[in-house]
Amino acid sequence: MDYDETDIAQRYDAGRHIPDRAMRVWFDAIKSHIPPSEIRQVLDVGCGTGRFSARLAQEFDAEIIGVDPR
User: Fold this and answer.
1) What CATH number is associated with residue 23?
2) Are 47 and 53 in contact (CB under 8 A)?
């Protein structure tokens, strides 16, 4: 199956949407343990469709490297 020829990724993301308020809780928790100024790169292992990657880049002003098994 060629996943690029389907709308599975969009449906996956829509079905697993995390509201901004909940996302804020997660990122505040991460930032309480790791000062954002110390982060230059983030390895997003198991990134799936990359739904957290853009937010990671925004929150930490860092380069994001996303990997996921095919």
Assistant:
1) 3.40.50.150
2) yes
pLDDT tens readout for residues 31-60 = 899 887 888 999 999 988 888 898 999 999
> Which range marks the domain in which residue 29 is found?
3-67
CA distances from 34 to 17, 31, 55 (A): 25, 5, 16
Start-to-end Cα distance in the chain = 11
pTM of the predicted model, to two decimals?
0.70
Count structural domains, the chain.
1
Closest to 68 (Cα-Cα) out of 40, 39, 43: 43
The length of the chain in residues reads 70
